[in-house]
Structures are given as C-alpha cells and as structure tokens.
Amino acid sequence: ILNVEQSPQSLHVQEGDSTNFTCSFPSSNFYALHWYRWETAKSPEALFVMTLNGDEKKKGRISATLNTKEGYSYLYIKGSQPEDSATYLCASLYSNYQLIWGAGTKLIIKP
Amino acid sequence: DTEVTQTPKHLVMGMTNKKSLKCEQHMGHRAMYWYKQKAKKPPELMFVYSYEKLSINESVPSRFSPECPNSSLLNLHLHALQPEDSALYLCASSQEPAGGAYEQYFGPGTRLTVT
C-alpha cells in the first residue's frame, strides 16, 4: 500500500520566522509531486507540481525542493506572515496515475 | 475563469433520501475528480472522469453514482447513504486526465451530513 507521510502534523511559528516541513513518499514508479495550500473555509490551492529529481520551485516567500531518489520533498516558508496559516498538503503521483495524498501539515503563525 | 464551483455548500439528508452534488468548471479541463475528505485525514479519491468518461472508480459503493453530462459538469448522485458517509466532498479538475504533472483546481466542497 502506497503511503505519503507529512511531518510535522502541526506547527506553530512566530510571525517573521522561517519554517519548513516534509513530505515523504515511496520513490518507486514516482511520476510527480504536488503541493497544495488549504486555508480554512476555502478550496485547496495548488502551489507547485514537481517531477524531476533536484527540482526546486519558488513562489514569493514559499519554495519547495524534490528528491525523488530518497523520496522526500521540503516546503520552505521564509519570513512567515499570518496569511500563511493554512494546512499544507502534498500528493504523490505514480506511473499508474494513482495520486496519493498526505494528511497535511497544519501551520499556525503567531503574531 | 479559474474557478471550480460546487453546490450545495451544505447538505443534510436522511438515509432514505436521494440527492445530488454538482460541480462545474469552465477552464476547458479534460479531467474531473470527486474526493471524500474526513476530518484530519487526507482527501480520498473516489472517481476520475477523463474526456467525460469514467476512468477511475476507487471501489466506491454503488450508493454513490457519478455522472458527467458534459465537459464542464460533474454530478455525484447519492442514494441510501449511511451516517459514516458524512464528510466533505470535494470536486477538482485538471488540464489533462489523471492529473499528470498538471495541478488540480479544487472547488470549495460540499459538507454532507447523513442523519
């Protein structure tokens, strides 16, 4: 059974601090890794889709890296702001088109 | 228009009722998805439609019946549900079938309560 793990489950960060969290996934038959941000009472919003080992993507203060050989991706947030508070979900796509979701990391930014 | 809309936002139904959830997108996406999400758990894929044809059914009970009337619309017909089916039902779409390297666009979800 394919399983995608995210850690930590929740995280409290002081406003202005930088933070990062992890998505671990099985590396066999890997095809793509998705990151989504899900704010309360809103729809999940796509942040990044990465496919290549060593990929690094950036959107404003948020960036992500991908290691397909060891099966992990990091999401980094630089200079956290209150609006960054959300649940961050990753999902790993495999060559059989199976998209497996992690349970998310809930990020709370303390003013 | 990069929006996926879902109606209704909330639905309460009895176990003998028949109801439908609706999802719509006008981005020209060729794949549409239904997910079920329970609190503090990851979204669970239920169905995938590719080019208006059902391509993936993740062993979902027959009391859930999907329908794709056209490329912009996706319905989920509900009949004889159980209380454990209470959850947030999310619809999503992507440019190409099965997601691939394309991001999925999600609707706000329908919060379903089965009494």
Write the layout of secondary structure elements.
The complex is a heterodimer of chains A (111) and B (115).
Chain A: E1 5-7, E2 10-14, E3 19-24, E4 30-38, E5 45-50, E6 56-59, E7 62-67, E8 72-77, E9 86-94, E10 99-101, E11 105-110
Parallel strand pairs in A: 2-11
Antiparallel strand pairs in A: 1-3, 3-8, 4-5, 4-9, 6-7, 7-8, 9-10, 9-11
Chain B: E1 4-7, E2 10-13, E3 18-25, E4 31-37, E5 44-50, E6 53-57, E7 64-70, E8 73-79, E9 87-94, E10 105-106, E11 110-114
Parallel strand pairs in B: 2-11
Antiparallel strand pairs in B: 1-3, 3-8, 4-5, 4-9, 5-6, 7-8, 9-10, 9-11
Label this structure with key terms.
heterodimer; A: about 110 residues; mainly beta; six-stranded mixed beta sheet; five-stranded antiparallel beta sheet; about 55% strand; globular; B: about 120 residues; seven-stranded mixed beta sheet; four-stranded antiparallel beta sheet; about 0% helix
